[in-house]
Amino acid sequence: MPSERTRAVLATRRFLQELCNNGNGLEVPPSVRESARRLLRHYPCSWHIDIAAVAWPMAWAPASRRRAPSLSYLDLLALTTTKASTEAGEGADIQGKPMESDDATN
What we know:
single chain
């Protein structure tokens, strides 16, 4: 069920965060804290889950309490492409490769 999957992922993220913060007062070995920190580095945030819920509502429920925006697949693709281009720098495609200019004078 999508809502259970979302809840499990969010609860796992909170658990890993607690391990990083010494487990709410419990003595957590440094190796466990470091492992949790490494796992969290690439673990999905709530906004990742919100995007997944828009793209694949049969598998994911929105992570935030507010209702997920009603976006079409093309709108979602435009958002991710814009974010990737912004992160890669202007004039780069979604993979960060420089785009060829349409200008014949280059």
